[in-house]
Amino acid sequence: MTRHKKQKSSQKISNLTNTILSILKKDRNQSFNYKQIASKLGVNDASSRNQIIKKLHALAAQKEIEEFERGKFKAIVTTEYHSGILDLSVKGSGYVICDDFDEDIFIASNNINRALNGDEVEFYVYKRRKRGKMEGEITQVIKRAKSEYVGVIQVHNNYAFVIPDSNKMYKDIFVPINKINKAEDGDKVLVSLEDWPENADSPNGKVLQVLGKPGEHNTEIHSILAEYGLPYEFPHEVENFADTLDTSITAEEIAKRRDMRNVLTFTIDPKDAKDFDDALSFKILDNGLYEIGIHIADVSHYLQEGTILDDEAYERATSVYLVDRVVPMLPEVLSNNACSLRPHEEKYTFSAVFKINNKAEVKEQWFGRTVTYSDARFAYEEAQAIIESKSNNIPQEVSLTGEPYQTSPEITQAVLKLDELAKIMRKRRMNEGAISFDKVEVKFDLDAEANPVGVFFKTTKDANKLIEEFMLLANKKVAEFIGKQSPKKTFIYRVHDEPDVSKLATLQGVVSKFGYKLNFKDRKTTTASLNNLLQEVVGKKEQNLVDTLTIRTMSKAEYTTHNIGHYGLAFDYYSHFTSPIRRYPDVMAHRLLQLYLDGGKSVNEDIYEDKCNHSSNMENLATKAERDSIKYMQIRFMEDHKNEEFLGVISGVTDWGIYVEIISNKCEGMVSVRDIKDDHYVFDEGQYALVGKTTKNMYQLGDEVIVRVKNTDLVKKHLDFNLIGKKEE
Length: 729
Known about the structure:
3'-5' exoribonuclease that releases 5'-nucleoside monophosphates and is involved in maturation of structured RNAs. Its main location: cytoplasm. Helices cover 32% and strands 29% of the residues. It starts with a helix and ends with a strand. Helix 3 (34-41) packs across helix 4 and helix 5 runs antiparallel to helix 18 (605-639). Mean pLDDT is 91; it is low at 1-12. By secondary structure, the protein is of the alpha+beta class. Strands 13-20-19-16-15-14-21 form a seven-stranded mixed sheet. Strands 3-4-5-7-6 form a five-stranded mixed β-barrel.
């Protein structure tokens, strides 16, 4: 045997006790002989085999393992094992989130044992605590969270490595040269993990798709979608199927529906909307009540269960709204044409029709399939002009046509009355403990090549809130109608749990730095003080930070068949019924509502709970992709502003640096602690600050600072700043 080979073998054998124990513990229900262990270690020389045999007998004598049958050994299991989800940090260590414990379990990087971020893992917890934290070790991966990664490929002579974009993927992926799928050195690719041999430092993979050259706009947008396993086009057979659907409005179908074509009906949407999935109708009744219809595109009329179109819509579960494009849940023939409630067209709709008095109280309700005709289409800005001027004049600057015009007196009257009722409903909701999140949305002005030429903030005005209140009313009343039936029927609810107490305490700690006080004595005081806080920060430098932190204290809203109510809206029953063009749960709600209106029996709860879980997961991935696309566009925007100085707010503090959010455009970047040269700075967790050892100079959460762009990385979606200094008071 050569000296080199001997050296390698002896390295593998040197830590033999731990290695044997980990092999046996990993497959603790299986027994192994010395040959199987040698094979797992990748050694086959006589000396190594003898050492393995000796070590096995020694460990059995020490009662660390047992000889199950002659020559076959098994782990002695005295440890209690748990399972949970691994949340990895950028530094390589992580935490396992597990229902068996009140706190997350810290896992040091050397105890991760090939688990990756988001994986479901098995682990055990040490008897000791380390720095007050419970600590454990991962014993095996139960289920990988994902098997596909986006990264840049480095091609060598007979192999390649893919360096993943995600900073939470701590290993490069080894790709044999025959599996690079024609990728060239430096290409951005989508790679799938195939296996991770025991004795290999990196997992093995194969290139599924070449996405393009890093930094190019389409490459990066496709990379964002690929990273989360989201599609960016429809399979041909799905497109073809959609194109063959009969989308005509027939007398036969109209006869089965409530005909509301002669009632005043209109849509209010963003000015760039293509899919109008909701319309409002308004009629004054002789008894002094108002008949208000919330009409929703009847997607389930076209989307039949068991078809390839329905399977595709279910898999997608949601439309994805990236900065420069929408990846729709349904092909365009449905989303922008047949199902879109376009002006001056008859459409099949699914409606919630209410008789409402002047106090915005619902006196009667009706649910069912309808046919409607939209008399007009408004942008939010146009409806806002009606509300603000209390007249039917639409000025040129907000008009969709670019010309000033006048609406009909009936439409003006309808918009003003709906606005009045919406304000009463909103006030009532707030009094009952709803929380008012009016978070500023960042939007970009894009040129023809999708380059960001400007940033603006989308704000919510009365016209937006008018639509929101009537959509909330429909969603709530549909959920109540089914939720209160006896015997209980399976339905799709949109639920929102109470906030996490520990997160509220963290929020209290942060906002007290800005002089705000919160009272968490009970639900009423909690929501009142959160609403008060969100109102007080409007227009202040810390608004975005406080808004973001407050949203983070909230539980995630999700879909489920188990109704627990909606905390944020202060509703006991809530569903999603009003956006079936872009959300699959709304399609399911329509189908179930119709089934129960027809007297059908309750459906299988377990099947629908699985569908709810899938929908919640896909919504989560879509949200992450949307965030990444905003981050990417912000970095592209900042590339053109490299030598400018910006005023920002410190939005995060860690031991490796401070995060700064620019006030004028909400772009967030990092100042590395290594780049702050005037002192040696140390992280003070209690004060949310970096503190200079000598000068005691402090950079604290919420401080206003001046920064300049140091580096923009479109591939990693990372922005680095140089710190110029604090804003002079």
